[in-house]
Write a structure and sequence with these properties.
single chain, 131 residues, alpha+beta, Cytidine Deaminase, domain 2, 5-stranded mixed beta sheet, 4 helices, 24% strand, globular
């Protein structure tokens, strides 16, 4: 699957976002090694700390379905700023993905390509070989 197809899937999932407080809707699409794609959207909560980001929503759905081998992630949002993953999402991704894991961020009519290693150069790791 090419980045544009994955970004299109992320754009579809942002329509399901629950963002009544920020009005900043985010969608994510996580590509598994077997070609399966898991979508996620942000789900806000009146108790802001209980909000869940689109990236973690997609990853948690994938893990709940038995998937733990991922090959790419696309993220898109309803507005500015560009939807770069927050620190929590970066660290959770690092639990399953290595530093070369590609992340595509939709910005206006194009996308920025980066890697998890560029986003989180010093991920916390207990040395248990998970990454």
């Amino acid at each position: 699957m090419n980045p544009n197809e994955l970004i299109d899937m992320a754009s579809q999932s942002l329509k399901n976002a629950h963002a009544p407080y920020s009005n900043y809707r985010v969608g994510a699409a996580l590509l598994c090694a077997d070609g399966t794609v898991f979508a996620g959207c942000n789900v806000e909560n009146a108790s802001y700390g209980l909000t869940n980001c689109a990236e973690r929503t997609a990853l948690f759905a994938a893990v709940a379905a038995g998937q733990t081998n991922f090959t790419a992630l696309a993220i898109t949002a309803s507005g500015e700023p560009a939807p770069f993953p927050c620190g929590a999402c970066r660290q959770v991704l690092a639990e399953f993905c290595g530093p070369d894991f590609p992340v595509y961020i939709k910005q206006a009519d194009e996308y920025a390509a980066t890697t998890l290693g560029e986003l989180l150069p010093h991920a916390f790791d207990l040395g248990n070989g998970q990454r």
